[in-house]
Design goal:
One of its GO terms (biological process) is amino acid transport. The chain has 223 residues and is an all-alpha fold. It is built from eight helices and no strands.
Length: 223
Amino acid sequence: MAYQFDFGAILPHWKLLLDGVVLTTELAAIGAVAGVGLGILGAWARTARTPVISQLVGVYVELIRNTPFLVQLFFIFFGLPALGIKLSEFQAAALAMVVNLGAYSTEIVRAGIQAIPAGQIEAAQSLAMNRVQIFRYIIIRPALKKIWPALSSQVVIVMLGSSVCSQIAAEELTFAANYIQGMNFRAFEVYFVTTGLYLVMSILLRQILKVFGNFLFERRNHA
């Protein structure tokens, strides 16, 4: 017998999907802001002249980049309580996304920093600027401009990776889709709509980051 499509079976559950989209958006926003911020600090530490700090950050980066995000999430949610650190599903998901994006952002931003001409840094040093001033006024903005497309793509990837957080019952979009499918058994329709929602969210997020990048760097150029 031919399969009978019934997308109408999803309509009674639109509120669950909307709540999932909202939670996914919140996780993506927290992950993007805190993760990129952590990446900038990590990149600064990696390029610093303090070997111990640079090596410690390097260990963190390699540890996160060479282990599955799901394992990192499980470690935070199930492992940390053994040390007395108990987090809610949302807190664990947000922390895992920040830590994961922070590691990848560190290497992306570091590549941008290394692309800054040495002459600009030497000129700043000749003006008696300290390391913090050089990083803030000379290095970071041009570095971010060079790697903004790659950084934006990584933010989108981490947002899509939030679907894994359904494994700890964080009620994001994939969790909502699984719950709805478990009630109406319309797997094709549920996951088709969910795929479309993720696609729309990815396109919107990429455009938002593009507009923000243009505003940030163009405004600086005209200042």
